TrEMBL record:
Catalytic function, reaction form: L-homoserine + NAD(+) = L-aspartate 4-semialdehyde + NADH + H(+); L-homoserine + NADP(+) = L-aspartate 4-semialdehyde + NADPH + H(+); L-aspartate + ATP = 4-phospho-L-aspartate + ADP
Pathway in which this enzyme or protein is active: Amino-acid biosynthesis; L-methionine biosynthesis via de novo pathway; L-homoserine from L-aspartate: step 3/3; Amino-acid biosynthesis; L-threonine biosynthesis; L-threonine from L-aspartate: step 3/5; Amino-acid biosynthesis; L-threonine biosynthesis; L-threonine from L-aspartate: step 1/5; Amino-acid biosynthesis; L-lysine biosynthesis via DAP pathway; (S)-tetrahydrodipicolinate from L-aspartate: step 1/4
Span of domain Aspartate/glutamate/uridylate kinase: 4-272
Subunit structure: Homotetramer.
The Aspartate/homoserine dehydrogenase NAD-binding domain, residue ranges: 434-561
Entry function: Bifunctional aspartate kinase and homoserine dehydrogenase that catalyzes the first and the third steps toward the synthesis of lysine, methionine and threonine from aspartate.
Cross-referenced Pfam families: AA_kinase (PF00696), Homoserine_dh (PF00742), NAD_binding_3 (PF03447)
Superkingdom of the organism of origin: Bacteria
EC number: 2.7.2.4, 1.1.1.3
Record domain Homoserine dehydrogenase catalytic: where: 576-773
The protein's name: Bifunctional aspartokinase/homoserine dehydrogenase
Species name: Pseudoalteromonas haloplanktis
Cofactors demanded by this protein: a metal cation
GO MF annotation list: aspartate kinase activity; homoserine dehydrogenase activity
Amino acid sequence: MVNIVHKFGGSSLSSAERYQAVANIILAHTEAGDCVVVSAAGKTTNTLVKLWQSYQQSDQQAVSDILLQLDNHQRTLIEQLLSPTARYAALNMLEQELALIAQQAQQQSLQEAALLAHGEVWSARLLATYLQQLGLAANDVDARQLFTLNDGQLLHQKNQQACAQLISANSINVVTGFIAADCQANTVTLGRNGSDYSATLLGSYCNAQQVSIWTDTQGVFSTDPRKVKKAIKYSKVCRGQANLLARLGNPVLHAKTLSPLKNTDIKLVVRSSYETEASATEIVKEGYSKAKRFITTLENIDLLRIDQLRGGEIGELSQLIQHSLHHFIENGDTYLLVPASATHQVVSHLQGRANIIESNLHGCAVVAPSNDVAQLFEQATQVLTEQSLTPRFSHQDADYILLLTDQSIDSDVLTLLHDKLINKGQELAIIVAGLGNVGEVFIEQLSQQLNRLQHHFSVKLVGLLRSRAMLFSPSGIALEQWQSQWQNEAIDYQQDDLLTRISELDYEHKVVIDITASEAFSELYPAFVNLDCHLISANKYAGTANNDWYQSLRRNLAERNLLWRYNTSVGAGLPINFALADLQNSGDSITHIEGVFSGTLSWLCSSYDGSVPFSDLVLQAQQMGYTEPDPREDLSGRDMQRKLLILARELGLTLELDDIALTPLMPEQLAQGDWQSFLDNKQLLDDFIAEKAADAAKDNKVLRYTGALTIAEGKVTAKVGLAYATQGDALANLTPGDNIFVINSQWYSDNALVIQGPGAGKEVTAAGVHSDLYWLIQNLK
Ligand code: ASP
Ligand code: MG
């Protein structure tokens, strides 16, 4: 049984490496019985079209040049991919086919469709042979055996039978896209870029569950992501909008692709063959996703007014010009958008019923929910007019607008349009992980924050996670009742369940807010990024993971235009990360950061005056909940070491944790053993501290536990440990529990910039997370 029909386009097969990548995808994603539809490799169809044109112009020289070019291209692929035996047979076959083309060209008996078909035939044959070579059961299938058309109409019953007969259940079927046959067994093509259509046709004839279109973009975006940095990848797009986009010339999906899926439940997925881990766009049945906003640009088109358009004529015309067409009615007249290069053909086909109203125009179409159309029409017209691109012709329809201009819309103008038209009305889904003290306060504060955030964006809390339990409500969790809902509805989850739930969210933006202290949870960040989630973390693990992992996470975020904030991982709500970023962005360079970045150690050192043994203070702090469950976690200094690493990386340094020298705030022996053995030996700690404090007092100094980072002449030194602070200095005057960051830079060289205040506590930390969230939203706008 066919479960999935995969389709790979020309760009996915443009080189031997791409074939190998495709084979890897097939290895990972197919089972025997599945189908793989392929296009011609790279630009082969274009080359074949050129060959046909040269043949028609009787340009013999060009014909043989192009044949040579095709020969070279195929030969290279075959030689790079196939083992000697398979290679010999493949080259032989290629040689015969090319010789036949040359002969037919000479004898004036070349057929256009049969000529173009070679591209797909070569791809299918090569891929199937290559898969066999990898040990897979695979065979190539010529779609002319599967799809028959009579007078341009598909013979569904016959085709279905042919598929049942020829699609093998025991191997992977590599099927040619783009081509079919007529009743006389002549080749016909399904239109340029028709392989997507081949794939959905095959899916419907074989009752597949899914059709996966593997392409060179990651899915369907709000606009061309190569032109607009903030283009949004949608996880779900409904069929109606996808269809409309295709008719309007958006290249991601082609107009006929969706038609075979009508009245079926077949799932259609668009995903990247380059970045196979990235999340995809699913094209869903009407009503299974909300309507989205899109802008698609139009280039070199003519506007025709058609008199007495007949039913089916658009289909005929688009078959004729091998291109999708869009028509609409304005003031009772029927208009047609035609690629300028095809106007001549269309006009002569319509024999006097086509009037060219405008020629060689550019512009854009905005597809949107019906309720938004009128407003978007005004806004778009205004933006274009301000950019001296006043539309020559515009049309407002039920679910899109069309604006045709003299000049084309470049990426700057498209970005402006995108900023103005697409961002409004977007939704951000929040998933909060960690429902401890800080998490609870964060959610409490969220209800007040929402009023403020709502002006920019519609923000919804959709997921809550704690340890191994999760609560997901894609339409939003009611903030007033989240606790009872959690009690009643949270379920245990496995990692895959969580990722599936996130991938199913139908939101323009998603953010995972990690308020856990779990290293295991931080290891999921790359998976969240693949699902297009922004990240906010109070958790320190990801920011202090080894550099390779950390850098690759950063790269993936950047590639997907995703943001990551972790302001509260150092100094809780204190704006230390902002300050560092701001200084550097304004051209300053930081030379030294020193301070106390642990509320616990700050409290212990500042409270200590020798009147009470240090270990008593430790126990007191433990009781007040100021410390980790085992306070030695704090005394070890590791937490401060992590924070200093985060600050260092914020400055662009590539340190590892171990590059930061660490001396704990306790004697070595106490670090070992269980908590009871610590208690038994606490005298050691008291003596250790008393001795250090006495040492400091000799110079009129006090004991502090600090982190320090120095950059001098390109050399970086970083350490965390005991320090003696001069009485009267900011460090010495520290209020017990406060954090302090003393920053020296080029501009703050003599007098340091000091940031000081509570560096822990649920309110300030939760507020710091809100500050990250607010920043995120500002940057998404
Ligand atoms: N190879 C054909 C073309 O370039 C079909 C396809 O790529 O889908 O138009
Ligand atoms: Mg193609």
